[in-house]
# Entry
Amino acid sequence: MRLQILENGHRPLQKIALQFMQAVLRGPVPGPILVLSYRRELFGKYMAPCFHEALRGATEWRVGEVELFAAFVSRLNECRY
# Structure
């Protein structure tokens, strides 16, 4: 279930950026990007660095391995990654 506000509640400049991403991806913008960009000043601005550190911080895994693991878990959860 996705909140309807995430589909159309972004500011004008954010809407342009999301439309560009949608065109480049040739499909819908992934949910995490929508969540982090909605009211960025309250949530995304602070959480994005935490997520980046969690996914890209000191680890023995390469970036590709982390991405593959995330895609696998998303598939098991029946969530588009």
Remarks:
- The first helix runs from residue 5 to 8.
- Helices lie at 5-8, 12-25, 31-37, 44-56, 63-76.
